[in-house]
Structure formats: C-alpha cells, structure tokens
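Lab notebook, bench 4. The sequencing result for the construct came back, and we need a structural model before the next group meeting so we can plan mutations. Quick request posted to the team channel:

Model the 3D structure of this chain.
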Amino acid sequence: MAMDGKELVEKLAKLSQVQSIKDIPQLTHALFPGTHCPLMGAAMAVGGIKDSLIVVVGTDECTYYTKSMTIHSEKFGGIDGRCVSVVLDDHDVTFGSAEKVQEAFKEIIEEYRPQCVFLVTTCVIEIIGDDFDAISEGLSKLYGIPVLPVHTEHFKCEDHLPGLERTITVCAEMMKSCDCDNSVNLLGQRMGDFATTELYAMLQKPA
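Done. Here's the predicted structure in token form:
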C-alpha cells in the first residue's frame, strides 16, 4: 500500500540524527519481483514486431540492461539480433547526443537494413533535453523508413507499462486501412500461445 505524505514526513530524519545506515528508516517494502522501468516495456513490445530494430540511447547501465535482457531472447535473435545500443559518454551528455546518434544510425542502417526502427530514449536523454522527436523525424526522412521515438524516462512513472503503451502508440503511424474480413487485431499479447486463451475461445464463438 502506498504511503501518504504525512506518514512519509513523520518517518524522515534530519541528517544530524543519522550516524549509520541503520538510522535511515525504511520508507517502503520491496515487492517481488519489483518493478521494471519503461525501457523494459518498450523492449517487450518491439520484440514482437517483425523486421523492426530497437535502438536504445543512454548510459552504460541502461544500454547494458536492455542488451542483457534481449541477448537470450529468441524474439530478438540473440547477441547479434535486433537490439542495438548507442552508449553516451560525458561529452555527449554535456554537448548533446544528436551527432553520435546520427553517426551510429548510419552504421546501423548499413549493417541491419531494418524496415522500421524504434529509437528509445532513457532517463539521461530526457534530463538533458535532447529533442528525439526531431532527431527521429530527420532520420526517417534521410533513410526513408519509419524511425519512431519512444520516451522511457523512469523518473516520471512507476513501472514498465508506459514503455509498452508508448511503443504501441507510435505504431499507429505505420498502420494502414485495409478491407475488413471479420478479423480483429489484438495488441499486447505478451507470452504464450494466444490460441489457448479464453479471449481466443470467445472470439471463435458465432455472433
């Protein structure tokens, strides 16, 4: 259960009262398996999109986190698969990451030849204020493929769900009208065989 503001303030201690780590009260209780950041949600969504590539732009920690998560995933194709990282250093954080991303993108296009790229930001990108919507638009025009920005800053949310939502939302730009053949599109199937679900059984019933 979330702690209200009054209870939170009552548990806080002044710095002069803290002599060791034991003097810092626990404000919340960890829940297994805990929460993941939106970056994971974005990776989960992109994993199911054929011929797409996820490009994660951020510091070592964030890019390693995504790569290690997808390295054993059949959806991404392992270490040489569809998950690519652009690692920023101190210079990029200070002066902006656009130039490094553009240089890396040229190599990515030549090597992977993707049909679609999800350009995923991380916390540091959002903090320094690089305009990845504009960067994505420029890259899309330059290479003639959809380059879709997905913002996954964790300091504005509590879990990975916004990453899933934002990834699926930007996909709307690629959707095209088609003739209706009494079928439906389902978004968000995370794991397992959809044909074994209750929803599948309901959709199979005659109207």
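The beta strands are 52-58, 83-87, 116-120, 147-150.
Will bring this to the meeting.
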